[in-house]
Design a protein that fits this description.
about 240 residues; mainly alpha; two-stranded antiparallel ribbon; 12 helices; about 0% strand; 7TM_GPCR_Srsx_nematod; GPCR_Rhodpsn; GPCR_Rhodpsn_7TM
Length: about 240
């Protein structure tokens, strides 16, 4: 299942990234830059899932399940440390995307005037925090001289970090969805006000565009709670 899931994630995120990069109108807009950054984190997670799935299939097929690695050797596998970063990056970028939508609705005029620095901050802050958090995954493997199966399940070769990662990323994913609850209330109120507007100004047009974008992302983000946050919290993704 890891191979199938990983391959599908790689293909879908490649489409998203390519669509944004190939369109000047899209790649110059802040929200699509953030969406691309989220897609890039998803791509890395999908790629590491695909590679990790192939690795474990090979181990099982060759009958090497009983052969042992140290936790440090498990961490040296490419998909292992890519998983550690991308796991945090996808959850944090989901939260950042929700915050971006919140800001765009509350401050629509200021939002469109902010330059490239805004997108850089919104993208590289979660990326750097994810990199910092992923460093903690190395602490246990470097301290402990234990033995485990070459399958290298995260819950075994880095148990403390696994618990930390599981709950912090699920909390970030869930929060990215819950932000839309007050946001949708604001959105509904603003739409009602626009219905009674006789003269539509450029500000109203920009606000309406932000509302449509926010509603679309909010709808797609609802699945995050059921297919990411909750399964992650109960340990379904015990990589």
């Amino acid at each position: 299942s890891y191979v199938t899931f990983g391959f599908g994630s790689v293909v879908c995120n490649c489409i998203v990234i390519s669509a944004v990069l190939c369109s000047r109108q899209l790649r110059t807009r802040q929200v699509f830059q953030i969406i691309s950054a989220l897609a890039m984190a998803d791509f890395v997670e999908g790629f590491s899932t695909f590679v990790g799935g192939l690795y474990r299939l090979c181990i099982i097929s060759l009958g090497m399940v009983e052969k042992q690695f140290t936790p440090f050797q498990c961490m040296l596998l490419p998909h292992s440390f890519l998983w550690r970063w991308s796991d945090f990056a996808t959850s944090f970028m989901l939260l950042v995307l929700s915050l971006d939508r919140f800001i765009s609705i509350l401050l629509p005029i200021q939002y469109v005037t902010w330059g490239p620095a805004y997108a850089v901050i919104m993208i590289f802050t979660p990326y750097c925090l994810s990199l910092l958090a992923s460093f903690f995954a190395w602490l246990y493997p470097m301290r402990v001289d234990a033995r485990l199966s070459m399958l290298c399940m995260t819950s075994y070769f880095s148990p403390v970090f696994y618990q930390f990662s599981k709950y912090s990323t699920s909390a970030a994913s869930a929060l990215s969805v819950f932000i839309y609850i007050p946001l949708l209330c604001i959105l509904r109120k603003q739409l009602r006000l626009m219905e009674h507007t006789i003269c539509v100004t450029q500000v109203d047009q920009r606000r309406r565009a932000q509302l449509r974008m926010t509603a679309t992302i909010a709808f797609s983000s609802c699945s995050t709670l059921f297919f990411d946050a909750i399964p992650r919290a109960v340990g379904v993704y015990g990589w």
